[in-house]
TrEMBL record:
<comment type="pathway">
    <text>Carbohydrate metabolism; tricarboxylic acid cycle; isocitrate from oxaloacetate: step 1/2.</text>
</comment>
<dbReference type="InterPro" id="IPR019810">
    <property type="entry name" value="Citrate_synthase_AS"/>
</dbReference>
<dbReference type="InterPro" id="IPR024176">
    <property type="entry name" value="Citrate_synthase_bac-typ"/>
</dbReference>
<dbReference type="InterPro" id="IPR016142">
    <property type="entry name" value="Citrate_synth-like_lrg_a-sub"/>
</dbReference>
<dbReference type="InterPro" id="IPR016143">
    <property type="entry name" value="Citrate_synth-like_sm_a-sub"/>
</dbReference>
<protein>
    <recommendedName>
        <fullName>Citrate synthase</fullName>
    </recommendedName>
</protein>
<dbReference type="InterPro" id="IPR036969">
    <property type="entry name" value="Citrate_synthase_sf"/>
</dbReference>
<keyword id="KW-0012">Acyltransferase</keyword>
<dbReference type="InterPro" id="IPR002020">
    <property type="entry name" value="Citrate_synthase"/>
</dbReference>
<keyword id="KW-0816">Tricarboxylic acid cycle</keyword>
<keyword id="KW-0808">Transferase</keyword>
<comment type="similarity">
    <text>Belongs to the citrate synthase family.</text>
</comment>
<dbReference type="GO" id="GO:0036440">
    <property type="term" value="F:citrate synthase activity"/>
</dbReference>
<dbReference type="InterPro" id="IPR010953">
    <property type="entry name" value="Citrate_synthase_typ-I"/>
</dbReference>
<dbReference type="Pfam" id="PF00285">
    <property type="entry name" value="Citrate_synt"/>
</dbReference>
Amino acid sequence: DTGLVTLDYGYLNTGSTKSAITYVNGEKGILRYRGYSIEDLAEKATFPETAWLLIYGELPNQEQLSHFRTLLTENALLHENLLHFFREMPPGAHPMGILSSVVNAVGLFTPRFYDDENIASAFELTTAGLISKIRTIAAFAYKASIGEPFVYPEAERSYCSNFLNMMFSSKTRPYHPDPIMEKALNTLLIVHADHEQNCSTSTVRMVGSSQANLYASICAGICALWGPLHGGANQAVLETLLRIQQSGMTIEQVMAKAKDKNDPFRLSGFGHRVYKSYDPRAKVLKKLMYQVFEREHVHDPLLDVAIKLEEAALKDDYFVERKLYPNVDFYSGILYRAMGIPTNMLTVMFAIGRLPGWIAHWKEMHDDPQSKINRPRQIYTGKTERAWIDRDKR
Ligand code: SDX
């Protein structure tokens, strides 16, 4: 009843975006940040170095890195008024909801850098502040959820050591720096740092294109990442592995459930919009996981379940035909669990890693003088024009 509608495809926003930040080749399983391979960065870089590379386009020299480290240290604290957010949230509030709220609120306590006569240094300060504070927000949300006092950032600690200390130390339980876990956290944050036009990054670009400020744009990105089809998948992976372990569900039953079209269950940690081959980040994390477990002399039975699940999927016709391979979320949860990070904090960890990527895309868009407000068009499938019908005739 819609009749024939002629469409001018020229007006449709194809949604494709030009960007010089990250290159992904889904068929070959290639991922590069500003031309550097994810394998090289995961092995040799620090997360602050990677953040600088993504945002400013080059690896920082010693002076730039030292300056950035100073900004991260000096801007790790939250305005004390913000601590009410953590105390007044309902018990069991999901930390992604707290993170998105407090990130937006940080902007209310920070002078808008548009008003600053030196925008470049104001931008540098704002982004370093966000990258630093997101750790504090995450750790305070966790501490509030377990009823423990907040542990404040310390000047002499590295980016990762500061986060783990804020999460796990207390007056009666000092945190002993564990270089293996700190290196593992550094690698995890690097492999999550950017991934071209994924759902949450596209959301940051969409919101930022209206000239909304950086905090509001990042808040929107956090909310998009929360979904179980995107960043929420790492939490869903662990929940699936725990369900298999605790319910006695067999691998075969899980695979059958994942393939059942009448069942909304999907095997989280598998499949990808772009990778139709093994996600290179999953390869990095699988190798790191074995290293960590070997050196820490720990063994998590969930790892056995994960390995069996991967083996079953990689030889299952349904998964092979659809090119469903493990993605970045499949092993990350097991590694974070080995650090003691609770399941409901896993997507927050993804957000901490992804923040520099979001900022880099927001900056790239704002630096482009041709940039316009994003306004996708549609293919209209509704009714053609109709005459009004009086109420007594409906
Ligand atoms: C991230 O985009 C990015 O870059 C994202 C990300 C990043 O760094 O930002 O890489 C991070 O989000 C990784 C993905 C995390 N999500 C999950 O692991 C959730 C589980 N995965 C699926 O929901 C799914 O694979 C998606 C959402 C990731 C991709 O969905 P698509 O593109 O709709 O999958 P598709 O259309 O290519 O699927 C083809 C077929 C379909 O079946 P048929 O209609 O052909 O019969 O494969 C099926 C799908 O139903 N399928 C799955 C499946 N993934 C796809 N079936 C069972 N389990 C799965 N995991």
